[in-house]
C-alpha cells in the first residue's frame, strides 16, 4: 500500500482557526509486476478529535483515469485489448499478460489461444508502435471450436478441407459433418435423408442434430429360408433373435448357452423366462 498525506489550515465560518489534517491512502494490487489502483481511502482529523473517513471505488472513475493516462502517460505505450479466446505473453515468458496492460513501444507481445479455441495461424504476435498503435500479425487468430457430435442413432462423418476429422472431438471452423441414420434406424419422417452440418465461427453448428427412430425386429438383409446344411445367416436376417454366450475356459471360445427373442425395446425374453433365469442353459 502507498500512503500520501497532505496538511493544510482552513478557517471555519465561526471564525475559529482549526488545524485540519487530510490523509489519503491508495489501495493497490500487484499483477504482472505492475501495481493497479483499485481504491482510495481519505481521512480527516482536526484538533477536536473529529474524524471523517471516506472510500472511493476507482471502478466508477475508470473513464476519467483513462483520459488522463491517454493524455499524459500512454503516448508511447499500447494497451492490450480484450479479444475473445486470446492469451498474451512476452516472448520467452509463460506469465499471462492481462488485457488492459500497458506495453512500452517497440515491444512485441506473443498471442496464443485459450483451451476450446482453434489457432488459425501457427504464429501470432502484436508489435507496439511509437504512435501507441498495435501492428498485428493477423486480423483474427482464435476461433471458438464447435462441440463434439455424438449420437446413438446417427452415423456421423466429419471432414475439414477434404480430409478426415474426428467428430467426437471439438471441431474447428469450416468442419463439415454428414449425418445419416444407422442400420436398423429410420429418419423421423420415414424417408432416409442425408444432412450436412457446418461449424461456424461462433463455435456453433449451423443446425441441430436430429434423432432417427429405431427399426427393431424387422428384416433389413435379404436371405433365403434356413435349411439343413445351408449357409450361415447374415447379420440382420432376423434382428429380433438374441443369444447369450458363455466363455469356455478350456478352449477360450464363447459357447452359445441360450437363445431368445426381443419383445420390447427395453426387455428380451429368453427360453420362456427372463434374462437371469438359470433354466435357460441348454
Structural commentary:
This protein has 282 residues and is mostly beta strands. It has one helix spanning 62-72, and strands at 2-11, 17-31, 34-46, 52-57, 77-79, 86-90, 102-104, 108-113, 117-119, 124-128, 134-136, 142-144, 154-160, 163-165, 176-181, 185-186, 195-198, 213-214, 241-247, 254-264, 267-270. The strands form seven sheets. A four-stranded antiparallel sheet has the order 1-2-3-4, with no helix packed on it. Strand 10 (124-128) and strand 11 form a beta hairpin. It starts with a strand and ends in a 12-residue tail after the last strand. Mean pLDDT is 76; it is low at 1-16 and 268-282.
List the helices and strands and how they pair.
Blueprint: E1 2-11, E2 17-31, E3 34-46, E4 52-57, H1 62-72, E5 77-79, E6 86-90, E7 102-104, E8 108-113, E9 117-119, E10 124-128, E11 134-136, E12 142-144, E13 154-160, E14 163-165, E15 176-181, E16 185-186, E17 195-198, E18 213-214, E19 241-247, E20 254-264, E21 267-270
Antiparallel strand pairs: 1-2, 2-3, 3-4, 5-7, 6-8, 8-10, 9-12, 10-11, 13-14, 13-15, 15-17, 16-18, 19-20, 20-21
N-C termini distance: 84 Å
Helix share of residues? under 10%
Describe the global form: elongated
How many β strands by DSSP?
21
Q: How many distinct helices?
A: 1
Query: Roughly how many Å is the radius of gyration?
Result: 36 Å
Mean pLDDT: 76
Biggest beta-sheet profile: 4 strands, antiparallel
Spell the H/E element sequence: EEEEHEEEEEEEEEEEEEEEEE
Protein structure class:
mainly beta
Please list the strands of the largest sheet in the order they lie side by side: 1-2-3-4
Low-confidence stretches: 1-16, 268-282
Strand content: 35-45%
Organism: Acyrthosiphon pisum
Protein name: Sushi domain-containing protein
Amino acid at each position: 500500500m502507498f500512503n500520501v498525506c497532505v496538511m493544510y489550515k482552513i478557517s471555519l465560518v465561526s471564525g475559529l482557526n482549526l488545524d485540519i489534517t487530510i490523509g489519503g491512502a491508495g489501495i493497490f494490487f500487484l499483477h504482472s509486476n505492475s501495481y493497479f489502483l483499485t481504491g482510495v481511502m481519505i481521512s480527516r482529523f482536526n484538533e477536536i478529535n473529529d474524524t471523517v473517513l471516506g472510500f472511493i471505488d476507482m471502478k466508477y472513475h475508470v473513464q476519467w483515469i483513462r483520459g488522463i493516462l491517454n493524455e499524459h502517460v500512454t503516448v508511447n505505450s499500447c494497451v492490450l485489448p480484450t479479444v475473445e479466446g486470446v492469451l498474451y505473453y512476452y516472448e520467452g515468458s509463460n506469465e499471462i499478460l492481462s488485457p488492459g496492460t500497458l506495453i512500452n513501444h517497440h515491444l512485441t507481445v506473443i498471442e496464443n489461444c485459450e483451451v476450446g479455441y482453434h489457432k488459425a495461424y501457427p504464429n501470432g504476435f502484436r508489435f507496439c508502435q511509437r504512435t501507441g498503435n498495435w501492428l498485428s500479425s493477423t486480423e483474427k487468430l482464435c476461433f471458438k471450436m464447435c462441440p463434439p457430435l455424438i449420437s446413438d442413432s446417427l452415423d456421423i462423418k466429419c471432414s475439414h478441407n477434404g480430409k478426415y476429422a474426428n467428430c467426437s472431438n471439438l471441431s474447428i471452423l469450416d468442419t463439415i459433418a454428414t449425418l445419416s441414420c444407422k442400420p436398423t434406424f429410420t429418419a423421423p419422417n420415414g424417408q432416409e435423408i442425408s444432412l450436412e452440418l457446418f461449424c461456424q465461427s461462433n463455435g456453433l453448428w449451423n443446425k441441430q442434430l436430429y434423432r432417427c427412430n429405431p427399426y427393431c425386429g424387422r428384416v433389413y438383409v435379404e436371405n433365403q429360408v434356413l435349411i439343413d446344411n445351408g449357409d450361415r445367416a447374415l447379420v440382420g436376417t432376423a434382428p429380433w433373435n438374441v443369444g447369450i454366450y458363455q466363455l469356455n475356459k478350456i478352449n477360450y471360445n464363447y459357447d452359445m448357452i441360450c437363445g431368445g427373442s426381443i419383445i420390447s425395446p427395453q426387455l428380451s425374453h429368453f427360453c420362456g423366462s427372463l434374462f437371469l433365469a438359470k433354466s435357460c442353459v441348454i
